[in-house]
Automatic annotation (TrEMBL):
SMART domains: AIRC (SM01001). It is an enzyme of class 5 (isomerase). This is N5-carboxyaminoimidazole ribonucleotide mutase. The gene is purE. Keywords: Isomerase, Lyase, Purine biosynthesis.
């Protein structure tokens, strides 16, 4: 089995439904990854060990997701030289604003690349881009992926124009109906 090059970690297994998006993106690009629960609050010693050992184990980037008082991404960034991508996980209260602010407002010197609330897919894609910067083949696949996005958006525009033009004056613009 190929060794993982991206670590996807989260504060609890309850974050998985969100964090799965990162795993899915990496799988699409055939990038080997590992997943684990690593909590700064609940298992601080294991969390420090994970961060300290990540680079020596061959990981190239860490994606860390957590909800609420989300200290995991920042704490990992403080003990690893690897890039850390933080995913704010939305919980029942505060709609993820708490985790977003906990992750994004890092002090200078300790960067965490924060994606949107619940934006685990983009975290996976960002990790893929980081790896692609040193991998011409992966870079090519990322370009293809971008072209597909472009084609899909163009197609959506075509369909919307056809729908609106087809409806003509009967479309009821501005009527709110
Ligand atoms: N924010 C953190 C950290 C941390 O930052 O170390 N550890 C767990 N958690 C978060 O607590 C939430 C509730 O966890 P439980 O569902 O296990 O009660 C999860 O979203 C987790 O990421």
């Amino acid at each position: 089995m190929t060794s993982p090059v991206v670590g996807i970690v989260m504060g609890s297994d309850s974050d998985w439904p969100v964090m799965e998006g990162a795993a899915q993106a990496l799988a699409e690009f055939e990038i080997p990854f590992e997943v684990d629960v690593v909590s700064a609050h609940r298992m601080p010693h294991e969390m420090i060990a994970y961060g300290e050992q990540a680079a020596d184990r061959g990981l190239k980037a860490i994606i860390a997701g957590a909800g609420g008082a989300a200290h995991l991404p920042g704490m990992l960034a403080s003990v690893t030289p690897l890039p850390v991508i933080g995913v704010p996980v939305p919980l029942k209260y505060l709609d993820g604003m708490d985790s977003l602010l906990s992750i994004v407002q890092m002090p200078a010197g300790v960067p965490v690349a924060t994606v949107s609330v619940g934006g685990a897919r983009n975290a996976g894609l960002l990790a893929a881009r980081m790896l692609a910067a040193h991998d011409a083949e992966l870079l090519g696949r990322m370009r293809e992926f971008q072209q597909e996005l472009n084609d899909q958006a163009t197609e959506k525009g075509k369909r919307l124009r056809a729908k609106v033009e087809g409806a003509g004056s009967g479309f009821g613009f501005g009527s709110g109906k």
